[in-house]
Request: fold
Amino acid sequence: RGRTLAFNGVCGNMGVALAAGITALIASFLGWRAAFFIPGAICIVTGFVYLWAVATDKKGKAQRKSHPEVRLSRSATFVLFALFIIISLGAGLAFNVITVSLPKVIDERAGQGISLVMVGSIATAVFVVGGLAQLAVGRLVERFTPHSLFVVVTLILFVGAAWSVVAKGPILLVALAIAMAGVYGQVTVNDIVLARYTADAWRGRVYAVRYFLIFTTAGAAVATIAFLHARGGFDLVLLATAGICLVFFLATIGLFFLVSGAEARNAGAVAVPA
Reply:
């Protein structure tokens, strides 16, 4: 599951990284209308191909379990989903602020004297680092407990974001690469953790709420970047991002302590033979 989710996430994130270049290429040769029409047509065609290639899900639907992989108490479940609201909002804001502002941050704070093409190439390289980190997390989540790995990944994200506030020049690129590794890596482990404590029958609805919160923050992130940049430049943008990442990290620590007892009981139940 970890590697599958990681591969799926990398494909999506590489699409984000390549979108600007592909759009510019299509628009320059075929016009701006084609830049809308071609991707839309590809989405429609792949949707029909998916329906043709995937067997009916009726059998899988009948086999869905009504209890999660790791059971939590009723009160712990409510606290868990409250934490996941904070985590989803933090993840969405951190992801969108970092990915949207990254090229301009590099241009203003590390791109003095280099061409626009080089700035774009550096930004793409930083995105690729994030993609590789996502694949690595997909492997690691199968070897370590997901809730523990979640804390480590969000700590990496916070360290990278906080370091980027004070870093300049080439060191800034290292800090941004660390932040990008964390912000991409958390996507995979986030999905795994949520799946672990959610029953199959409810998982689709829970993911729907999570992605609704994440996508809602996308628009808020753009407005936030504009608001903060007008009042303090990217120093303030990066400082606010580091603050968001800190809240995100603290929420994952809370989740870690919340589920540790249930994980210990689950491990004991598995270890005891029937």
Notes: The mean pLDDT is 81. The chain is about 85% helix and 0% strand. Residues 175 and 221 are 20 Å apart (CA to CA).
